[in-house]
Each structure stands twice: as structure tokens, then as C-alpha cells.
Write a structure and sequence with these properties.
Elements: H1 4-26, E1 41-45, H2 51-65, H3 67-71, E2 76-79, H4 85-91, H5 97-103, E3 108-111, H6 129-136, E4 141-148, E5 153-160, E6 173-174, E7 180-181, H7 188-204, E8 209-214, H8 222-234, E9 241-246, H9 247-253, H10 257-260, E10 265-268, H11 270-284, E11 291-295, E12 300-304, H12 310-314, H13 324-336, H14 340-356, H15 371-388
Parallel strand pairs: 1-2, 1-3, 3-12, 5-10, 8-9, 8-10
Antiparallel strand pairs: 4-5, 4-11, 6-7, 11-12
Helix pairs in contact: 2-15, 7-8, 13-14, 14-15
Length: 389
């Protein structure tokens, strides 16, 4: 019978082989995220917690902006069920196989937030459905814009989406009662892809610099390789500077005008990208103010950057959740499918409702607007802006 140490060695070897097989599928591609002007079907995944509530309002807005295309059946909204937490727990699959097959029929997906069971939940060890979708659909670029015109800030974050500590989040080793080990995954192949995506965006949009955020001074292999690969890609883009920042310093000082002066485009490994973009969104006005795109060469998923808000659900305030983050993602989706005019209209309405005019406030408290009431306000603003055109 194999002893415990040999079992762990064997398991570690299996994980290495699994990652090598994944990279063989990626096949060293340098492909960039691409838009889907020809998209005919948009899949809708409502999610958990507040997900179905904010998704219902997002669909109201999307249906208004695409009403002509929907009437003419040029675009279809296809609702896919089966990714509720209850169903995932019942099947024991983070993304049930039949649901994944449905999703793969749709190149563009609008997704609500999904709950991942905590490690402390007895008997449950499900990997994040988000992580599974990102890896299975090879959504290697997580793109999150943050804009504050009054502070001169126009940031775009490119977060590597398929590697880092999240890649093997449920595959760590519990060596004994005392020792546990998790893994960080980094490959030159995937770092090249996200770095090139960031530099191409900078080049296309007239940006002057790309800032790479790591802890390469301490994490010599994975973070060090990420930084060095970004430096190599930077040499291909004359006129675009490469800035280096440490993740802890960036987290501490991102809101400092002297620290972020002149910074425009960021490229980060998976975990750091998750943390820093949340900080940036809070600086902008809260997690509810920023949308997110997960883009690969064949699929694109658009979502809010926040989670399923169990606190609001448990306190009977789910119907007061702010839909703005998911609506920002709807705007990104519209741009992705070539509906730039509709995307611009929505962005302008969200700015008016969220900051410029702010006639109705949504705070998640019952004394302020409900999710539906706030969406009514956005739709009224959209109509008014359209009438002025």
C-alpha cells in the first residue's frame, strides 16, 4: 500500500500533467481577445443570491436597447438554467456537464454573480464556477475599466484569468493535520497573451504606458516570470512605456494621486488583478459601479465584479441591490457585439443616474430606491436622451 507521502507525490505529478495538457491545448497561441460582431445568440445565466434580481433588470435595459434586433430576430436572448448553487451542490459539479454544453453554443454570455461554497462548509469542495467557466472557455483576459473624469482617471485593467492561485483552487494538498499546500500556476504562454492584449489595447487607444503589478521581488518564479515576460512583450511596442509596481504598494497607494499620476493601462496576474480592481472600483464609488468582461478568442462573458451578496439576501434586502455593475457589463457587451451607439447611450445614462444628476439614490437600504425603481430611472433617462438626439 502506498504511503501518504507517495500519494501526495503522485497527486502532484497528476496536477503537473494536467497543466501541461492544458497548455498543449492553448498551443502557444498569441491570439488576441476578439469582438463578436456576428453574434446572434446571447446566453443569460441569472446566477445566485441577488443575481436573478439584478439580471431581471439588466434584461429590461438590454431588451430596450436591442428591441429592433430582437423583434427582427437578428439577436436572441437564450436563458440557461442549471447554474444555481442548489443545482451545483446537488450534482456535485461546479458547472454541470449538460449546462456547459449549452453555454458552449453561445459565443456571448451575460452572467449574474454565483456563490462559491466556503472551504469551511462541511462536505463541500466545489471549485468556483467562475474559475471553471474562465478556464473551460479559455477566457484569458479579464478586462475592467475604471473611470473618474473629475479626478483625471481613465484606467483599464487586464487581469490574467486562467492561472495564478485560482487555477488549482480546490486541488491543494493536505499533507497532515499541520501542513497544507496550495499552488500558483504561471506559464509564459498565458502571460504573453494577457501582456500582448494589454499592449494592443494601449496601442489602439493611444495610451502611453502599461503598468505591470507583481510581487516579483519575493515570488521569484511565478511573479518573476510574469514580470520578465511582460518586459519582453513591451519591447515590441515602441512608444509605450512599461511601469513596474509591487502589489502591496499598489494596494496601499492606488488612491494616492502622486502614485497613480499618468497611469493608464494595467496588467496583473489573476489574484492580484482581483484584489487591485476591487480597490479601484471602491475608489470609483463601490463594487456596484464597475462592470467586467472575460474575453477569449471564441467566447466572451460579461458580469458584475461583485458577488452574490448573501448579506442582502439574509437581511431581506436583495430587492434593493444596485444593478449598476451588471449594467456596466451590459454596456461592455454591447460594444463587444458592435452596438457601439447603444453602449454609449447606456454609459451616458448610467453616469447621469449615478453621479451627474442622481435624482434617485440606490444604497441597498429600504429607505432608498429598489432595484426595479432604480432601473425605471435609468430607462426613463435613456428615453429622454434618445428623444433629444
Amino acid at each position: 500500500m502506498m504511503d501518504l507521502n507517495e500519494q501526495h507525490k503522485q497527486r502532484f505529478g497528476e496536477l503537473i500533467r494536467k497543466e501541461q495538457q492544458r497548455l498543449a491545448r492553448v498551443n502557444g497561441t498569441k491570439a488576441l481577445p476578439k469582438n463578436s460582431d456576428e453574434a446572434k445568440v446571447i446566453a443569460v445565466l441569472p446566477g445566485d443570491g441577488i443575481g436573478p434580481i439584478i439580471m431581471a433588470q439588466a434584461i429590461r435595459v438590454l431588451s430596450e436597447l436591442l428591441k429592433d434586433e430582437l423583434v427582427k430576430k437578428e439577436i436572441e436572448l437564450r436563458f440557461i438554467e442549471g447554474l444555481t448553487l442548489e443545482n451545483r451542490l446537488a450534482t456535485g459539479e461546479s458547472v454541470p456537464e449538460a449546462v456547459m454544453a449549452e453555454i458552449k453554443c453561445c459565443p456571448v454570455i451575460l452572467k449574474g454573480p454565483m456563490t462559491t461554497p466556503k472551504a469551511s462548509d462541511a462536505g463541500i469542495n466545489l471549485t468556483s464556477a467562475n474559475a471553471i467557466l474562465r478556464r473551460e472557455l479559455d477566457l484569458f483576459a479579464n478586462i475592467r475599466p475604471v473611470k473618474m473624469a473629475h479626478k483625471g482617471i481613465d484606467w483599464t485593467f487586464f487581469r490574467e484569468n486562467t492561472e495564478g492561485p485560482y487555477a488549482l483552487g480546490s486541488d491543494g494538498l493536505q499533507i497532515d493535520e499541520d501542513l497544507s499546500i496550495d499552488f500558483v500556476v504561471e506559464s509564459r504562454t498565458c502571460t504573453e497573451r494577457i501582456a500582448r492584449a494589454a499592449f494592443e489595447y494601449a496601442k489602439t487607444n493611444g495610451k502611453r504606458n502599461v503598468t505591470v503589478v507583481t510581487k516579483a521581488n519575493i515570488i521569484k518564479r511565478t511573479d518573476g516570470n510574469f514580470l520578465n515576460t511582460c518586459k519582453e512583450i513591451a519591447r515590441e511596442y515602441a512608444g509605450i512605456g512599461l511601469e513596474e509596481r509591487l502589489v502591496d504598494v499598489t494596494a496601499a497607494r492606488l488612491t494616492n494621486p502622486e502614485f497613480h499620476k499618468g497611469l493608464e493601462v494595467f496588467v496583473l496576474p489573476n489574484l492580484y488583478g482581483d484584489i487591485i480592481t476591487d480597490i479601484a472600483a471602491e475608489y470609483q464609488g463601490g463594487l456596484g459601479t464597475a462592470g467586467s468582461a472575460n474575453i477569449g478568442t471564441d467566447y466572451a462573458v460579461f458580469e458584475a465584479i461583485h458577488g452574490s451578496a448573501p448579506f442582502l439576501v439574509e437581511n431581506n434586502r436583495a430587492e434593493y441591490a444596485d444593478p449598476s455593475s451588471l449594467l456596466r457589463a451590459v454596456g461592455m457587451l454591447l460594444n463587444h457585439i458592435g452596438k457601439n451607439g447603444q453602449a454609449t447611450r447606456l454609459e451616458k445614462a448610467l453616469d447621469i443616474c449615478g453621479s451627474t444628476e442622481r435624482r434617485i439614490k440606490i444604497t441597498s437600504f429600504r429607505e432608498d430606491a429598489s432595484t426595479e425603481e432604480y432601473t425605471d430611472y435609468i430607462l426613463e433617462t435613456l428615453a429622454a436622451e434618445y428623444a433629444l438626439q
